Amino acid sequence: MIPSVLPTYSRAPLTFVKGEGSWMIEADGRRFLDLGAGIAVNVLGHANPVLVDALTTQAGKLWHVSNLYNIEQQQGLADKLVAATFADTAFFTNSGTEACELAVKMVRKYWYEKEQPERTEIIAFEGAFHGRSSAGIAAAGSEKMTKGFGPLLPGFAQVPWGDLDAVSASITDQTAAVIVEPVQGEGGIRPMEDATLKDLRTICDDAGILLILDEVQCGMGRTGRLFAHEWAGIAPDVMMVAKGIGGGFPLGAVLANEKAASGMIAGTHGSTYGGNPLACAVGCAVVDTVADPAFLEEVNRKAGLLRQKLEGLVAAYPDVFETVRGAGLMLGLKCKPACTDVVSAGYDNEVITVPAADNVVRLLPPLNIEDDDISEAVKRLEAAAAQVAAAAKE
Question: pTM for this structure?
Fold first, then answer.
């Protein structure tokens, strides 16, 4: 008999009932250090008092109206994002998947309005993850994402990760845009080099096509800048944002420059819940905190501390780990045994990590994790590594 919750997840045998900062408390009372942060969502940790106050204060006033009316909190969040980024405008969604849908629509509508409706194709990179909608899985193109869900939405092409010659060779008079994650998350914590990202921007400019950045996982301070592309000194035309922007409350956004958004007029897109007062009140509190240069400076300091300790862990357990990679507090441990074995051993030692492709364990802690918690987390990862190494010898 099928369970009441559709069984699309392979869930760990854990039930968390409370969170405190970088800690989660299991129903049996065990305390776990959280290096997953809900897959890069809880950027300010669990039960953060600033976010709790923003949510409860707004909840006592107004939960939802609809986008038939002006929403004060939505306007405030849009203004903050426009002031802090390349963007001229923002549209709010409930998730990164919905942001992907709008990004695709936006670039295709741009070319339709320029009287080039044949320009519908979007070039993506192998290993990408752009959500689980029809457009998102078609963009990623992998068998894991698409098997059993055909026919796939047309209009997408994939090239090898970081292969700009392949990008250039794939551009035709049907190409609308290129879409890329500056750091692949689900793909195994694979950063695109700054120079490569700069060259990709140049390729798009020379070809007259648009550049979409997917910063759903790597954005909102995760790499030590508000958005990862800032390290390369470039700007996209369209950018997908979600996960961390709500700090745990469902919220996403598409940010765009005026050129790319020019075709999106009244009636071309909508959302019932997107940008409602509750979500945007929390989003404003998140942006106010994370966009502060002093906060981002601390993210970079903590990232250096964590990476240094992880390098020592890799050196101590060469039969378990190959290397550390990533940027900021978006790090990955490339494993030799199955990465899921390391994740499972972490559960036994009360530390939460997240598996990814390419046999990588993701480490995505809250951005405000304490130094002592970093040290304790690495101790627990070391215990997990020792457990995996011992099991391999049996």
Answer: 0.96
